[in-house]
Amino acid sequence: MTTRYRVEYALKERPVRKYIYFQVMAFADTELIEWIKGLLAVPFVLLSQPTNIHEDDKPTVAQMAQSAHDRYSQIMKDVEDLIIDHIAHQKRGGLWSTDTKSKLKLLVPSVGNFFTHLPLKDAFEFQDRRRFISNRRFVAPSFNDIRLILNTAQAMSLVRTSRLELVTFDGDVTLYDDGQSLTPDNPCIPRILHLLKKGVRIGIVTAAGYTEESKYYGRLYGLLDALAENDIPAHQLVVMGGEANFLFAYTPHAEHRLERIAPEVWQLPEMSTWTEENIKNLLDVAESALKQCVSALNMPVSVLRKSRAVGIYPPAGVKLAREQLEETVLVVQRILEMSPAAKKIPFCAFNGGNDVFVDIGDKSWGVMACQRYFGGIEGGRSLHVGDQFLSAGANDFKARLACTTAWIASPAETVALLDEVQDLSAARGRSHSLSGGA
Ligand code: IMP
Ligand code: MG
């Protein structure tokens, strides 16, 4: 066996394992990432020099890195061109057409639509300077390497060729650790302030579904207070709670710095089917499905029914097994999909890390409502940053239908992404002023 296989086995990241486990539910970006990883594995196997540790006649790390870099770059350029071709097909068939007949679609049948081009070669070169991918002799380009290259490519495209007008963030794991709050020392705060000062609108699109401003203030006070201290005008930042159910806008002088916005202002016409009756019917089915799972899997949990959601959660200090959470999501999702109630309104069943919730609507509606609230921002000028992009029990991946996305794995990666956006914008500003002066 080549080194690659041993390494792949030892290093398989959690998302990849999850994907194999749930391969029946293949998700576009996961499959695309796996496919790119497979393409890069070939030059890795052929060019890596694991024996140069003990054989002097083999190319040095620097020589090997140069040839690997050139091949990886060329492959990323080829994929970049396939995406350009895919977008051309998409435009002919309409953005929402699912039968795009592009070559990329033939190669990766589950691939979704793209809102912008992705400069993958440039993005690879950027990440290679950071992660030294080409210098590695034992570890092939990984799922995480490619996920981060795609994020960088998305940021480059939004800043250089499109225009970034709205950034929406998930809450838990994206802006702060799971179940924590956005405290004043959070490093995302100065970066979000920077975006706001540049005129970019901000949305926090979270599953956390509270109806009271005070609860959101309790989770987000570090950011909301910083906005007031920096004289950010009202209504430049919104909080969308319960995926797509409750919209609040930042208002400095309101008691909790948030003001509830009437649904007529932000709801999309398609949301008119979200009547109390349809919501109740869907949540009734979901609650009974959750209770079936609680009993089948003997889980020590409480059931929580809210106005727009129903969920299960364990007592403090008890950790549910990943398999229990994911089994519950899949069973509940299946029962709901087969019920007449779910034909009338969209829903989102997801694994929140140590709980399972079924929410009315999903983040595609949440992001589209924010786009509407801010005057009709296009998907190609809007970026959603989140941690849940696997199909089995994830809630951010639905945002992929509404706008460009960045898949991060921790709040530290969100900070790194915002720094990339800031550096790219500064570089763009410099090149504009140079060409303006010429
Ligand atoms: P997010 O990562 O910001 O989308 O937050 C997800 C977490 O919010 C879930 O894992 C739950 O722990 C919590 N949560 C609180 N209320 C709700 C609700 O009404 N629906 C879904 N999740 C909720
Ligand atoms: Mg999250």
TrEMBL record:
<keyword id="KW-0067">ATP-binding</keyword>
<dbReference type="InterPro" id="IPR009453">
    <property type="entry name" value="ISN1"/>
</dbReference>
<keyword id="KW-0378">Hydrolase</keyword>
<keyword id="KW-0479">Metal-binding</keyword>
<comment type="similarity">
    <text>Belongs to the ISN1 family.</text>
</comment>
<keyword id="KW-0547">Nucleotide-binding</keyword>
<dbReference type="InterPro" id="IPR036412">
    <property type="entry name" value="HAD-like_sf"/>
</dbReference>
<dbReference type="Pfam" id="PF06437">
    <property type="entry name" value="ISN1"/>
</dbReference>
<keyword id="KW-0546">Nucleotide metabolism</keyword>
<comment type="subunit">
    <text>Homotetramer.</text>
</comment>
<dbReference type="GO" id="GO:0071590">
    <property type="term" value="P:nicotinamide riboside biosynthetic process"/>
</dbReference>
<comment type="function">
    <text>IMP-specific 5'-nucleotidase involved in IMP (inositol monophosphate) degradation.</text>
</comment>
<dbReference type="GO" id="GO:0009117">
    <property type="term" value="P:nucleotide metabolic process"/>
</dbReference>
<dbReference type="GO" id="GO:0008253">
    <property type="term" value="F:5'-nucleotidase activity"/>
</dbReference>
<dbReference type="GO" id="GO:0005524">
    <property type="term" value="F:ATP binding"/>
</dbReference>
<protein>
    <recommendedName>
        <fullName>IMP-specific 5'-nucleotidase 1</fullName>
        <ecNumber>3.1.3.-</ecNumber>
    </recommendedName>
</protein>
<dbReference type="GO" id="GO:0000287">
    <property type="term" value="F:magnesium ion binding"/>
</dbReference>
<dbReference type="GO" id="GO:0071592">
    <property type="term" value="P:nicotinic acid riboside biosynthetic process"/>
</dbReference>
<keyword id="KW-0460">Magnesium</keyword>
<dbReference type="GO" id="GO:0006190">
    <property type="term" value="P:inosine salvage"/>
</dbReference>
